[in-house]
Design a protein that fits this description.
Elements lengths: L7 H12 L4 E2 H8 L4 H13 L8 H16 L9 H4 L2 E2 L1 H10 L1 H10 L5 H5 L1 H18 L8 H15 L3 H28 L1 H15 L4
Antiparallel strand pairs: 1-2
Helix pairs in contact: 1-6, 3-4, 3-10, 4-9, 9-10, 9-11, 10-11, 11-12
Length: 216
């Protein structure tokens, strides 16, 4: 991080406080955090859909933005770029506040776990290309307007973005291992939605996942 005296959650809370209830454009957000590379922007875009109670309606547009970012990473760009029309798209203050407020716990868990480890791996171009391809695949799933195809892939992107921020090769490797699980969940949800209708996803797959998590 650019300022080691501030944690990631504190930094995001400060960003929301500075907005003072005003919406911001994607361009202003990119300019504000551009020196942090792709990691922080990917984390912010993935967070609303990665929450246990995701913000509705943002997985698809944010997933499309992440597809663009992942494509830039694959091409070797070091900083994010968007065309002017995309830069002018607004991100609502309510969404930012909702995400940061409800994301405090996962952010603090990540802050506790993440640290520079296996940094050579985290800087390896070949490995980072694999991370970028994984993020691209997760973002494609995240963009589908089907229940349960968003949260797990968004969470994987969130983990990978945190690993990129701190050059934590161990966390990046963990995120890569989680990706097939996320794809399996999203693939099952897409198959059920295609063959039996989206409402059946809520009735069949969701109870199974809740059972895995020990929820009633």
């Amino acid at each position: 991080m650019t300022d080691t005296t501030h944690t990631l959650s504190q930094e995001l809370h400060a960003l929301v406080d500075e907005l003072d209830g005003q919406d911001l454009t994607l361009g202003l957000l990119v300019d504000r955090i551009g020196d942090r590379g792709f990691g922080l922007l990917l984390l912010l875009l993935a967070l609303p859909a990665a929450l246990p109670l995701p913000a509705p309606g943002y997985a698809t547009p944010f997933g499309l933005l992440i597809i663009g970012l992942a494509s830039q990473m694959i091409k070797g760009r070091q900083t994010p770029w968007f065309p002017e029309r995309t830069r002018n798209r607004k991100i609502s203050y309510k969404l930012m506040a909702f995400s940061v407020r409800n994301g405090t716990l996962p952010l603090r868990v990540v802050e506790f776990l993440v640290r520079p480890r296996l940094s050579k791996l985290a800087r390896n171009r070949g490995f980072l290309a694999g991370v970028a391809v994984t993020i691209l695949l997760m973002a494609c799933s995240m963009s589908l307007p089907i229940p349960l195809t968003n949260t797990a892939p968004s969470f994987v992107i969130f983990i990978l973005a945190a690993g990129m921020l701190e050059e934590d090769g161990l966390l990046l490797g963990f995120g890569m291992l989680l990706a097939p699980v996320a794809i399996a969940i999203a693939g099952a949800a897409a198959w059920v939605a295609w063959t039996q209708g989206p409402e059946m996803v809520e009735e069949t797959i969701k109870p199974v996942i809740k059972g895995w998590l020990g929820q009633s």
